[in-house]
Every structure is written in C-alpha cells, then in structure tokens.
Write a structure and sequence with these properties.
By secondary structure, this protein is mostly helical. It has four helices and no strands. Helix 3 (46-56) runs antiparallel to helix 4.
C-alpha cells in the first residue's frame, strides 16, 4: 500500500480501489464490509458504537477498555436474548 493511500485514509478520505483491495487483503477482511450500498443506509450496531467510545476514552487504558467491552458484550447479549417477543 502506498504512503499516499495511508495519508488519504488518515485525512478521512476514501482509498482508491487498489488501496482498498490491498488493505482488506492485508487485514484478511471482506471488502463487502466496507462498501455501502446506496439503497441500504448502514448504521453501526450498538455494541460497535459502545466499543468505539470505550477505545477512544482517554481515561481508560486499552486493557480497561477491553475488559469493559467484554463485560458489556456479555450483558447486552444476555439481555437481548431474554427480551420478550
């Protein structure tokens, strides 16, 4: 991946097709996870939002953020599965 692609990503801009392909290959991810269809607005799920906030909290160490994320994930999944239909 070129330095210009990394710079573009750091600036919040989109990579070109070759840059995206290199990134998803390197990270062993699916490009489908990063492509938004215009007819399907996509919003992050609740756990993703919470994890993002925890990881960005400067008051927490990475280990503390991970521990909280694990606790919240277990509790959330348990409570969602217990929700009456």
């Amino acid at each position: 991946m070129s330095a210009s692609t990394l710079t573009r990503l750091a600036q919040g801009r989109r990579p070109d097709v070759d840059g995206l392909a290199a990134l998803v290959t390197w990270a062993n991810l699916s490009a489908d996870d990063f492509v938004r269809r215009t007819d399907e607005p996509r919003s992050p799920d609740t756990l993703t939002k919470v994890a993002t906030h925890l990881r960005g909290d400067r008051n927490l160490t990475p280990e503390a953020a991970a521990a909280l994320e694990a606790l919240i994930t277990v509790a959330y999944k348990q409570l969602v599965s217990d929700r009456p239909e």
